[in-house]
Amino acid sequence: MNRRTFWWFTIPSVIVMLALMVFPLITTVWLGFQKLLLRDLNNPEWVGWDNYRDVLSDPEFWAALRFTLVFVVVTVPVSMVFGLAVALLLDRVGRGRAIYMAALLLPFIVTPVVGTLIYEDLFERGGLISWLWEVFTDDAFAVSASNVKVLIVVQYIWYVMPFAMITFFAGLQTLPEERVEAAALDGAGFWRNLWHVTLPHLRLLVVFVGLISVMDAYRVYDSVFVWTGNRFTEAHTLAVYNVRIATAFDIGRLGKGNAIAVITVIGIFVVLIPFLWRSYRDQIAERT
Amino acid sequence: MSTVTLKNLVKDYPNGFRAITDLSLHLDDGEFLVLVGPSGCGKSTALRMIAGLEDITSGDLYVGDRRLNDVAPKDRDMAMVFQNYALYPQMTVAENIAFPLKLRRVPKAERTAQVLQAAEILELTEQLDKKPAHLSGGQRQRVAMGRAIVRHPALFLMDEPLSNLDAKLRVQMRADIAGIQRELGVTTFYVTHDQVEAMTMGDRVAVIKDGVLQQVDTPESIYGSPDNVFVAAFIGSPSMNLFEASLTGSDEPDGGYSLALGDQRLAVPAEVVADRPSLASYEGRPVVVGIRPEHLEDASVAPDHPDDQRLDATVDVREALGAETLVHFNLNAQSVDSGDPDALDDLRDTGRCTARFSASSQARVSDQIRVNVDGRKLHFFDRQTHLAIRG
User: Does the predicted interface ipTM exceed a cut of 0.95?
Assistant: First the structure.
């Protein structure tokens, strides 16, 4: 292929990437160094590292970062383990598999905001869980600063689990039956078969689901916002905190908001680097 | 003692299909038994029932005195070699072979020793650190064998282990597997659709068709005196020629019979009749007569042959194989469907006949030739039941 043909093929996607990724990223970095308020968008003022200093000294930022990390560390492994368990169960279902699968996928299909509202309703006055709570404890159940984080985490796991499930289920369909049978005759029971045959077969999917889940959980916004709104700010994740700062009341500190965005992007790279390194190493190992 | 006994094994599937009907077999300690049959005959199902990978609908399975019907596969002390090898791709060759020992918590030093010993037997010593993806088909098959032999199991189960290998390698592995089995003396149940494997490897051969056992015997007996038309046609390559013929008593003084084969007549030697007294009851009726290709010879190569045991033929196809020459011709006689679903030839009832002539035969396509028939090697079967007429 000569150079000219090469460019004709690549230029459209280069333009799209420049327009949708590189340009906004540069703008974000640039805005991070400006003092820019929502009510006065026409007068940006260069303030150097002031926004970053402001963010890094804001205890609410550190609280949001801490909760976001806890959120990632809890929801990703738990949803993956549950997803695998349900996929293994689904794999054994003979009749009516499609119905089970549709039902299991429902939380993931429903719009996150709607799903969260439905789930939240269970805990409101007259909701099923708050009613049960009252029956067994004689106390009225109330969403509070002390339990809202747990509720958010549980709801998010319920919401993302189908993603891991459907991916692992697809992977299980390509596992050669003979290999499972060979392990069974070699003396492997359920757990050893899982460890030595099933998981190695799903290894690349585990990395893939892990990667996507970490990114999703790290950037979680809608379900947390529905739960907390402008109440419980201590249960805000980075994304919610970011939007709150950038749009707060009529002030809307856009410059600071962009600085938070830059820090978030850097943060996600830090979180993902082990994954990227791991999959890079695997690919090299596979080639040799 | 690792004797294996199958008593009236039956396998019914939920859709009502009966895959195995009343299968009874007995394997002596150290015996190599080959279960052979055309595709879809239920032979793999039988093997999987022994392994515990399929439930037994009814009947009993014993190894020694122990009834295994309801024992989990991992507790049956059997090692299986699969058609597609079923190696663990993330493990090296050494780890694959050691895997069953690791699951049995064999100490590491002993494991290593066992693996090295197996690798030596299987000539895999150079490959121990490689992953299966980097091995050839034959090497993968040997790793699968290694995984089976390190366990010293009560029973080897092999499910068409050679069918993914190319022809040359298959011949070599055939001898290798049979050799290793004899060396280790482990009772072996081997399933294949390839009758050459069955003949060359087994101490005994069991022929199965549509889930029903047809005959169990030594390869020589199966070949020399098949119990029915199916076994006669299935074992041997090229297949036995089978035709309908009518048997008539002859006027000859020695009391022989004569066969009307199409529009030709063929004398049946008196000794053949003497061996089969019941043949008398078929006089004047059609029977199925069978003759193997190697019992036909070009008359010009062997002129010293009774003239009434010769047929006239016109050569249709000639295949010179070097050591011998296969000659195909047509007899104007009704062919017989042996019931082998894999054999297309049976579908054409043209009276096609195959002969294995010595290489010195000069027969060419379209030549009119005389064919010697070794009358002592004729096989007779009942036309209705397809069972051999003997005794």
Answer: no
